[in-house]
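A favour, since you know our structure tokens better than I do. It will help me judge whether the discrete encoding reads sensibly. The space below this message is yours for that.
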Amino acid sequence: MNLDKQQRGAPEPPPAPRRQRGIPRWVELLVLAATAVGGFFGGQVVVINKDSGGDAKPSAQATVTVTATSTVTASPSETTLAGGETPTDDPSAPSGSPAPGRRTFLADLGVVDGGGSANASPATLLGRSYPKAVRLNCDEAGKSAVYNVSGYKTLQASVGIASDSYNAIGSVGSVSVTSASGNPIGRPVETRSSSVTKLSVDISGQDQVKITCVMTKTGSEGMSYFTTALGDAVLIA
């Protein structure tokens, strides 16, 4: 038997199948990782079909909606005290009465009677200025002013003839305080241009007091009045 002839006449074996060329494995992994991240943040999802030769086709688009919530904290009102309480008037003082220890200038009160003889105006006594003074005219018949003092206990003032008063030099007068019924409260004090006298009287229980100035001596013949001043007269509750 001729072996060479048999080998030449035998059919050739089919060629080995060629390996289909595809995308490298590391590229697939990289694309898959990028796809996962993009899909998480609302991007476009891309699917790579290995059998399609590596063509990228968009699959689906995911939409992520983010809702922000703000928190508003209410602050206390300016008129609200700590603890939620609201401000009130001084509870220690009855309605219409001054609180204990309160000090009120007589010049800040209205005159009940005798307004023509008294007025609130700054005055100077022996070189010292009293911005909250009460000026009171003074003549031989006496000039008066009535004030409401309900709830107060003490009246204090510095008394003297105002430095800018008519007929001041040499004139002398007397200042007294009486109740509404005319009863004297405390002792009268002297008023003159050459000195300042301290007035302090107890007015507890009085609703009104009358302050009167009488000229006891004129500084110049024929001059019938002058102006005295109650420097910074104050009521103390």
